[in-house]
Amino acid sequence: MVFSSTVFLFIFLPAVFILHTLIPDRVMWLKNALLCAASLIFYAYGEPVYIIIMIASVTFNYFAARLIDSRAGKTRSALCAAAVTVDLAVLCFFKYVPWLVGVVNSALGFSLPVPGFTIPVGISFYTFQILSYVVDVCRKKTEVQKRYIDLFLYISFFPQLIAGPIVKYGDIRAQLDSRSLTPDKLALGVRRFTLGLSKKVLISNNAAIIATAAFDAESPSSFFCWAGAICYCIQLYFDFSGYSDMAIGLAHMFGFELCENFNYPYSAVTIRDFWKRWHISLTSWFREYVYFPLGGNRKGKARTVINRLIVFFLTGLWHGANFTFILWGMWHGLLMMFEQLAGFDRLVKKRALRLPLRIYTLLAVTLGFVVFNSKSIGAAFLYIARMFSFSGSPADALIHFSPFMCLMLICGLVFSFPITPRLTGLSKRVPALEALSYIVCLPLLLACIMSLAAGSFNPFIYYIF
Description:
Blueprint: H1 6-22, H2 28-44, H3 51-69, H4 73-108, H5 123-138, H6 148-156, H7 158-161, H8 169-177, H9 183-216, H10 222-253, H11 271-277, H12 280-294, H13 301-319, H14 323-341, H15 344-347, H16 354-373, H17 377-387, H18 395-398, H19 403-415, H20 420-429, H21 431-439, H22 441-453
């Protein structure tokens, strides 16, 4: 089940919200039990078989963490390493084995049977949450959770189950025991959810039409290729950040507060700055659980470069079983290495260079996302070559545009940059604007509902991760 579906909006969410609100705050265990049951239904709606994998994973790590907590020294570390190995083995088996078998068959001419199972939805996200919990218990950074139902809710909470944000256990531990829903928090949650839904349905889905047509075209013109690449950047950002907004908004509606996941990444001045703003929870996870344990930047420049390349290789691989994802990750890692060697930290301090640096960053990110969205590395290079061939008539692209789509793409371009924070700051000084921000949510919600009811194109990119 996805948030941008009529089943979720008109049946699932109202039912769960009403039941959760009716349960008194003093009976928190019952509220948590309800959310666990709702999360299981939410997950089982699309993956009724693979729900067993998630339950088994939570159960295994519940007991593993308690066992780790009861030991000390090398035994404690060994048990933690064993639990992490099991978790990663499950993730790799479902996510990478079919791909690896296909690679071996192609490279060596074998005819090994390719497993036919699909990737369990959200396995990359909930596995990373489980890993952070187990490791933090081992490091004594957080207390072990002795109530199974609370740990299960932390892992399976439906707003962030499918596509994050990746929440660390320590950041939500207290909210599992005590939380309350105030009118202000509910209003903020509804507004955040509506704005996220609008980003997904109205902007991302319209950008996806152009992006899909361009990447699927046999011989697109250079103009069509650029239009497709730019629209894919808009689609990806508003799809994923819209989902994160919806997740954060939904969490508010149930009394929780989740971490922010995006901070206008297309306004970044360097690739390093981009990764401080893009998928923040994933970047933080890799920094804390991979980069720092490898030594970070404490073991010399050469080791720092190697550590960063390892992190970006794993970041690319985390996104999917395809060489295009690996190349995308390494592209960003190499650019960060280049920026470090070229002294970009000094350059960004010069006001006159900030616009050229922003253009460089946007171009580098756009080319990277072309690779990210391509079926193969060869297809990616061919697409990029057509982008810079400056040939063909733009007519093949223009036939796909409509006035409403153009309006939504303009909105996408504008709101990719930090306009909203400035409006928010202004609304705090002008109360009427604050009220208007809530009022405008109603027509936006109606527009989203009309689009969904019409059966419009509604892909969700991160659903497969």
